[in-house]
Each structure stands twice: as C-alpha cells, then as structure tokens.
Amino acid sequence: MSIFALDKELKFPPVDMAEPDGLLAIGGDLSFERLVLAYRKGIFPWYEGRTILWWCPDPRFILFPNELKVSKSMKQVLKSDRFQFKTDTAFKEVIGNCKTISREGQSSTWITNAVKDAYIDLHARGLAHSAETWENGELVGGLYGIRLGKIFFGESMFSKKSNASKFAFINYVNLLIQEGVEIIDCQVYTEHLESLGARMIPRKEFIELIEKWQ
C-alpha cells in the first residue's frame, strides 16, 4: 500500500487504504476544517517529529457508554468527597498537562504546540471539551476530546494523583450517557481503558456507527 501525502486540498483517502498499523496519510495541516473532516471520517492526527500523521486503525478501541465498568474501589472514590468533577472550566490547563505529563515508556509527547493551539481553537468553537478532577482547588486530573453529535472522540488524559483520571473519565461517561452519547472513541488500546470497559471493534463497524451518530 501507498501512504498518501496530503496537500492543501481538503480531503483524505478512503480509510480502508490505511496501512496495517492504521497509518493512512501524512502532511496537511491542523486547520479547523481539516480536523473536523478527519473526525467525521474516523481519522485522527498523531505527530512523529514535525510531521503530522493521520490514522484510522483496524480494529478500533472504543467504549459503549452503557458498558462502563466501575470497580468497587473506584465506587468508594466516587462516593467520597475527596475529588470534585467539573467540565470545560480549564481546557487550556488540561491539554497543557496532557502535553507535559511524563508517561511510562514514552520519552516525548505527540502534543506539540501546534496541536495544543489547534485544539484550544476547537474548544473555543464548541467542539473540544475537557473533563476535570479537582482537589482542594487544584486541577489534579482530566481528559479532553472532540464531541460530534452522539460521539465523543477521546484524545488524551492525565493524572497527578492516584485515580484522578479515572474519576474524571467515569463521571464524564455518566454525563455523556445523560446527553445521549452512543459511542466513545478511545482510538488505540490501553490497559487503563480496557479496565473501564473499552473494547476492540472492526474499523468497518466503527465507521458505520460514527456515520450514523454524528
């Protein structure tokens, strides 16, 4: 297969032309219009160095909100008054923490300054949202992503305290259920999200679902 090099034209190749690892195209830009088009097609950006890479993996790691799993220990955390849950009060701080937080097995982050600015713009336009965990007035965990129709495309999360990101995620999933969201895109596998109920589905099924619910 060939990797498509994007130019200024606003288009992507069909997702079934992606490489086995999900890589579909390189280049292009992070304009509002291109990012919205990408998500509507089930494609997301990921940087390698200074190059934008566009991905659509098969299978796709997703969470159906009604399949959310909450452990007994997390139920106790949720019932306690240790943490407070908020949304969209500190989007810049959430993405800033996702950009700088150290992660096991990763020497750098894919969230460049250009990515940060692009998603802050999406937030200003009402498409990107943050879910936040606060403790004694301090932001200690959270996540951000894109909302299109009945789909939430999760992008990244961070945690400065044990269970802080799970607290934000679980509370946000419950909120999204109330708002009628049908699917949460987790993009690629993590053990952390699998423990919360996320699972793999074929890319073809994922594309059909997002076409139905966006």
Characterise the protein shown here.
Helix 3 runs antiparallel to helix 4 (113-124). The longest helix has 15 residues, at 164-178. By secondary structure, this protein is an alpha+beta fold. The model has no long low-confidence stretch (mean pLDDT 94). A hairpin with a 2-residue loop joins strand 8 and strand 9 (151-159). The protein is 32% helix and 29% strand. It has 7 helices and 11 strands.
Strand order, sheet with most strands: 6-7-8-9-10-5-11
Global geometry: globular
Return the domain count.
2
Question: Strand-residue fraction?
Answer: 25-35%
* Proper CATH architecture of the largest domain: 3-Layer(aba) Sandwich
List the helices and strands in order. EEHEEEHEHHEEEHEHEH
Q: How many angstroms does the end-to-end distance come to?
A: 29 Å
* CATH overall fold name of the largest domain: Aminopeptidase
CATH level 4 superfamily of the largest domain: Leucyl/phenylalanyl-tRNA-protein transferase, C-terminal domain
Kindly provide the name of the CATH class of the largest domain: Alpha Beta
Structural class: alpha+beta
- Mean of pLDDT: 94
Q: Describe the largest sheet.
A: 7 strands, mixed
Q: Radius of gyration over alpha carbons?
A: 17 Å
Regions with little confidence, pLDDT below 50 for 5+ residues:
none
Count, helices: 7
Question: How many individual β-strands?
Answer: 11
Q: State the helicity in percent bands.
A: 25-40%
